Amino acid sequence: MKKTWKWGILAPGKIARKFTTELQTLDNAEIVAVGSRNESRSAEFAAEFGVEKAYGSYEELATDPDVEVIYVASPHSHHAEHAIMCMNQGKHVLCEKALSLNLKEVIEMFEVARKNNVFLMEAFVTPFQPSYRKAKEIIESGELGKLQYLHGWFGFNSAPYDPQGRLFNPELGGGSLLDIGLYAVFDALWFLGSPKDISASAALTERGIDTSLTMRFDYPEGVFASLYSSFYTASGPGCDIFCEKGVLRITRRGILHQQLETRSRGTDPVRYTWEGDECGMKLEAVEVMKCLDEGKMESEVMPYSRSFELMKTLDSIREHAGIHYPGRG
Amino acid sequence: MKKTWKWGILAPGKIARKFTTELQTLDNAEIVAVGSRNESRSAEFAAEFGVEKAYGSYEELATDPDVEVIYVASPHSHHAEHAIMCMNQGKHVLCEKALSLNLKEVIEMFEVARKNNVFLMEAFVTPFQPSYRKAKEIIESGELGKLQYLHGWFGFNSAPYDPQGRLFNPELGGGSLLDIGLYAVFDALWFLGSPKDISASAALTERGIDTSLTMRFDYPEGVFASLYSSFYTASGPGCDIFCEKGVLRITRRGILHQQLETRSRGTDPVRYTWEGDECGMKLEAVEVMKCLDEGKMESEVMPYSRSFELMKTLDSIREHAGIHYPGRG
């Protein structure tokens, strides 16, 4: 019989609700505690999900001896601080993306994980999703020829401008890059690896936060990627992959519905779709517990090196686009 | 009864065959002569299309008093020379895109047209095509909100590398930019106008010709366009338009089949399709003869100003991407 892992939820906001809803469906996960700086939010979440212990601080959650794995869902700006606190208490951590605000902080997080011999993984769902795994399989099979160009994007338009809101606040790592742009960046890294050159251009608010952003990655031999993110387009996420013999498009309607379509000359389009169970955030939790069962402190699908590469690239994009987080690069 | 216009075809190659096939279906067009530097190619074309006069030089075609309108279909590198020769003989001219190799030459072509009081239009089919006209109508209606981002592309992969071939020869204005990239550039100009900033990156052959090319246009208020062209991707042409409330995609399977699809949140996609007669190159000829019937020396749909703006933009892209045509910028 598989071990049941005891989870704690740190910062019970919107994203934690989505994750917990899926986590509850896994029979080897038990949610034993939740921690918020606000006691009533914690209690409300505990009642909603039937969680036994509701703490009014993150520290109480981190020091609860019952808790084995903590899902960190606070704003990007606090990921490093919270994950490090949990890991220093010997807890394994699944930490929401972006892992932190800059590469220096990400490296520190890895060091703390190693020092404490605990598991740490960035909660980045893409590499676990069937559309991306199938797309990679198709590209690697060579049936579409060499990958020449990738266009990745993520836009939503449901956040009215609020200078204090998380999305627009530089103190909280606001801006489209860390919230959604990094999905497009991840697409390029996932299919093409590290670019040899980066350029970027952003529309910045008066507080220096990017509301729309374009990025271009140059690879050897004339291979390119164009990437885009914005708080002002209702496009959702997507990725078009242009190859020598055809084009592959990945789209999704919400996180639980994914579609992949390939088109090559002279043939009918081929479509693949995945729904619900196959696509969601619980794939991250499944991976965490699989690694823990096997005694691994790092995922092979979303390893340290991938988070390192992602944040290194994000740092470079920020430098080119003039995006800064006060006191943190 | 409408006047029947007497056409001559200059340079009877592949593109002229496509055009002539469609021109023949118009009841107010008569194809009276064809001119090639190669007499047997001319004779072959005349036999194929039932054209009375086949000349072994462009000069004979340009000076034939029967001919009223000449379609110039030679390589880009010779458009200016040939169009100017025809216009100086008092002929109206429909000249294939790219109109020439640089802005200076394009300006000279306009000046010659004005001086001789003849009609001149760049044979650029996009603004006549129903998908682009419908797309513009939808954007201007405001139903999708403000246009925020445009991704335009054109790729084909059917030209094996041949340093002497037209596509790869800098002396002939080779490279993806003038052959297909300008369609993507036109898309951005058509929907967004002139950018305030341009950046570009190209893969160049040893002779300095771009086989793949990415371009980024920056517009005010965080609006961007990413554009791509390549001789190494089997993508065909397309354009995605990202707006505040949804996304609009224009695609085509060959020049005679066009599709437009709009997607906005919470509604089913809306699709429009057009086939054959509605889409082809003959739309250009229809416009030419309509203007001539009305005594106009310039098209309002594809006016001088549009060709001027397009070539000015192409010059700027070349400067950023390091693409040069020997002796011509």
Q: How many strand segments of chain A?
A: 14
Q: Largest interface, per-chain counts?
A: A-B, 37 and 37 residues
> Residue share in helices of chain A?
25-40%
CATH homologous superfamily title of the largest domain in chain A:
Dihydrodipicolinate Reductase, domain 2
- So what's the oligomer here? homodimer
What is the CATH topology assignment of the largest domain in chain A?
Dihydrodipicolinate Reductase, domain 2
Uncertain regions spanning at least 5 consecutive residues of chain A: none
What's the architecture of the largest domain in chain A in CATH terms? 2-Layer Sandwich
Q: Tell me the series of helices and strands of chain A, N- to C-terminal.
A: EHEHEHEHEHEHEHEEEEEEEHH
**Termini gap of chain A:** 47 Å
Please identify the top-level CATH class of the largest domain in chain A.
Alpha Beta
As a percent range, the share of strand residues of chain A is 25-35%
State the shape of chain A. Answer: globular
Q: Rg of chain A, please?
A: 20 Å
Order of the strands making up the biggest sheet of chain A: 8-9-10-7-11-12-13-14
In DSSP terms (H or I, runs of 4 or more residues), the helix count of chain A works out at 9
Reported for the largest beta sheet of chain A, the result is: 8 strands, mixed
Any idea how many domains of chain A?
2
Pairing-aware structural class of the strands and helices of chain A? Answer: alpha/beta
Keywords (chains A, B): Oxidoreductase
Domain Gfo/Idh/MocA-like oxidoreductase N-terminal (chains A, B): 8-123
GO molecular function, one term (chains A, B): oxidoreductase activity
Pfam families (chains A, B): GFO_IDH_MocA, GFO_IDH_MocA_C3
